Amino acid sequence: MFENLSERLGGVFDRLTKQGALSADDVKTALREVRVALLEADVSLPVARQFIKAVEKKATGASVTKSVTPGQQVVKIVHDELIAVLAGEGEPGALKIDSPPAPILMVGLQGSGKTTTTAKLAKRLTERDGKKVLMASLDVNRPAAMEQLEILGKQIGVATLPIVKGEDPVTIAKRAKTQASLGGYDVYMLDTAGRLSIDEELMQQVEAVRDVANPRETLLVVDGLTGQDAVHTAENFDDRIGITGVALTRMDGDGRGGAALSMRAVTGKPIKFVGLGEKMDALETFEPERVAGRILG
Ligand code: GDP
């Protein structure tokens, strides 16, 4: 479907004489192709522009050894820069969950994979990190969503807060905190309500929950296939709620991963996890190298 960037640049450089260093003209020519590749991978235009500028500075005058073609050299510089932008600080996927019970707030739009990701992450924390986890659904408008979390909890062997009809999200969050403290839980996860689009009521509700829970981590779950919308969503949630990281779902689909680069560049917040399917094990730590490879095609 997409032409590989290396091949594309190879074609461009066939027309140029091989020199010991990349000239400003070579770089400009190559970066035109890189720009197209970024936009095809769904990187937003301002982010693509900014990225190209950074690469241009690094690539102009860079030496080309005999073992590589100028095209390969540009691809390497682009690849390294992609990783530099995508990589967060510290260990990928690390969460601040010391001082138990540590609250993790899960936020995002309806259908983004929030409930599934909550359960996947709870499973990972339980099995991989040996944590005792409690999950609570705050989606009072959708009883089915509350039941879905309960069913997933049973399936993965993770406790869920009993559902009490008629409670508001803030009360549920407080009850989760109490139960987590009394029950000796290391972590409690609050799966907030999703909406089809960002609206004021949703934001106020999540703000109120954030204020009582004082979360150690606030993870935004976004559908990796939604491209530019994902970036817009991340910007909005970060402005209003203040996220600490992103979980990018549906990366098993054929999206090119440009949203990851844009979100990272726009919010400055790390992508911590990647959803790779519907199964409870299909959650992985974000690997900048893999996404960089995907963006380059
Ligand atoms: P929520 O409304 O945000 O809580 O979304 P759900 O967790 O209910 O997920 C919506 C649908 O997306 C469900 O059918 C999930 O199985 C599916 N889903 C969630 N994460 C992924 C993923 O990483 N890959 C794929 N292919 N499907 C996913």
In a nutshell, what does this entry contain?
It is an enzyme of class 3 (hydrolase). The protein has 297 residues and is α/β, with parallel strands linked by helices.
Describe the structure.
- By secondary structure, this protein is α/β, with parallel strands linked by helices.
- It has helices at 5-14, 24-40, 45-59, 70-86, 114-127, 143-156, 169-182, 200-213, 228-240, 258-267, 288-296; strands spanning 102-108, 133-137, 159-160, 187-191, 217-223, 245-249, 271-275, 283-285.
- The chain has an eight-stranded mixed beta sheet, with helices on both faces.
- The termini are close together.
- The mean pLDDT is 89.
- The chain binds guanosine-5'-diphosphate.
- The site of guanosine-5'-diphosphate (GDP) has 17 residues, from helix 5.
- It is an enzyme of class 3 (hydrolase).
- Its main location: membrane.
- One of its GO terms (cellular component) is plasma membrane.
Describe the secondary structure blueprint for this structure:
Elements: H1 5-14, H2 24-40, H3 45-59, H4 70-86, E1 102-108, H5 114-127, E2 133-137, H6 143-156, E3 159-160, H7 169-182, E4 187-191, H8 200-213, E5 217-223, H9 228-240, E6 245-249, H10 258-267, E7 271-275, E8 283-285, H11 288-296
Helix pairs in contact: 1-2, 1-4, 2-3, 2-4, 3-4, 4-11, 5-6, 7-8, 9-10
The structure holds guanosine-5'-diphosphate.
List keywords for this structure.
single chain; 297 residues; alpha/beta; 8-stranded mixed β-sheet; 49% helix; 13% strand; elongated; binds guanosine-5'-diphosphate
